[in-house]
Amino acid sequence: MDTTYFGNPMSQWLIAAGILVLSAVGLWAVQRFVLTRLTSFARQTQTGIDDLIAHVLSRTKLTLLLVIALFFASLSLTLEPMAALVLRRAGAIAIVIQCGVWAGAAISFWVEQFVRETAEEDPAAVTTVSALSFVGRLVVWLVVLLLILDNLGVEVTALLTGLGIGGIAVALAVQNVLGDLLASLSIVLDKPFVIGDFLVVGEFKGTVEYVGLKTTRLRSITGEQLVLGNNDMLSSRLRNLGRMGDRRGDMTIGVTYDTSRHTLERIPGWIAEIVDAREETVHDRTHLSAFGPYSVDFETVYHVTVPEYDRFMDVKQAINLGIHEKFEAEGVDFAYPTQLVYTAPLKGDAG
Fold first, then answer.
1. pLDDT digits 0-9 by tens, 45-73
2. Has residue 247 got a pLDDT over 80?
3. Who has greater pLDDT, 350 or 234?
4. What is the pLDDT of residue 4?
5. Which neighbouring-strand residues pair with 298?
6. Closest CA to 62 of 111, 25, 36
7. 3-state SS, residue 187
8. CA dist list (Å): 290 to 296, 320, 331
9. Kindly report the CA angle at 132 between 127 and 134, in degrees rounded to 5?
């Protein structure tokens, strides 16, 4: 037991080995106990923060626990400066790697939550967020790599400077791509539109089919696909007709001038009754609005509570047919452009 190996007696090595085993087992037991209690607590709550902590803690690597236990065991030994430095750096690298694992687990947890909540409503957003999560994990592990190199004694200042200059050059070269990428993130988080919405973007009109990292694709009324950059979409004045709560309908009807005043007074009531007879419509107003060149004009405004355009047109058609049927039954004539020509005999004409 008194035999010395690498500056420490055998008895001290056995003590260090015992500390190593006990520390590793103890740390593992504590980690499992805390994880079990936290997981049980998370199942009883509605908040997501405890689920996130439990998910991250479950990704704790046994390697980290062994490195920490090894560090505790080394405290009981007399080590050469180089060996002590190696142990310290190994411990620091293990902690840095474990932090990277935890950060990656947090990103994955957030993506899984997002997918569960929006997969059916917005599948394109799921694709975008998954791609952005890959970028996030890539950044995390780049930082981990730089910290590891710094712990190994590598001069990272010059490396960071080179990466910074190179990053600026790349950013300038692909600034349009980066603009669209950031715009896609804004679309995912702010949701100015989702798949299925009908948009009017400047002179373009169409239904959203896909929202990607760089472009958004619309299906126009005439059938062709419109591909617009995400940055262009957000920088334009965008009208989202898919978010309409209802649609406003208006029409002007002209009747002939030989219609009696009594009938003119009754026409607004007829139209209001026809509009209100439908469940999807709310009558706003009907008035005799003007005396036109060849007609007496009535202006009607109503709202259709169903925002779909096809349904709106069905309702509008039914109202128009109802008005036509009513006018036909009451003997009211619709006006149309007409001209009356009056003739008179010339002076001196015996005929």
1. 777 677 777 777 777 777 777 777 777 77
2. yes
3. 234
4. 65
5. 253, 288
6. 25
7. helix
8. 6, 20, 21
9. 100
Q: Which long-range contacts (CB under 8 A, 24 or more apart) does 64-70 make?
A: 64/94, 64/95, 64/97, 64/98, 65/24, 65/27, 65/28, 65/31, 66/24, 67/91, 67/94, 67/95, 68/23, 68/27, 68/94, 69/19, 69/20, 69/21, 69/23, 69/24, 69/27, 70/20
Q: Which CATH architecture has domain 247-330?
A: 2-Layer Sandwich (3.30)
Residues 6+ apart with CB under 8 A from 191: 122, 125
Q: Which CATH fold would you assign to the domain 183-243?
A: SH3 type barrels. (2.30.30)
Is the predicted pLDDT of residue 216 greater than 60, yes or no? yes
DSSP string over 126-143: HHHHHHHHHHHHHHHHHH
Could you state, in order of their start, the residue ranges of all structural domains in the chain? 4-154, 183-243, 247-330
Residue 255 token pair: 């009747």
Tens of pLDDT along 81-122? 777 777 777 777 788 888 888 888 888 887 777 767 665 666
Alpha-carbon distance of 350 to 148, in angstroms, equals: 120
Taking the C-alpha atoms of residue 274 and residue 270, their distance in angstroms, rounded to an integer, is 6
Rounded CA-CA distance 129/111 in Å is: 7
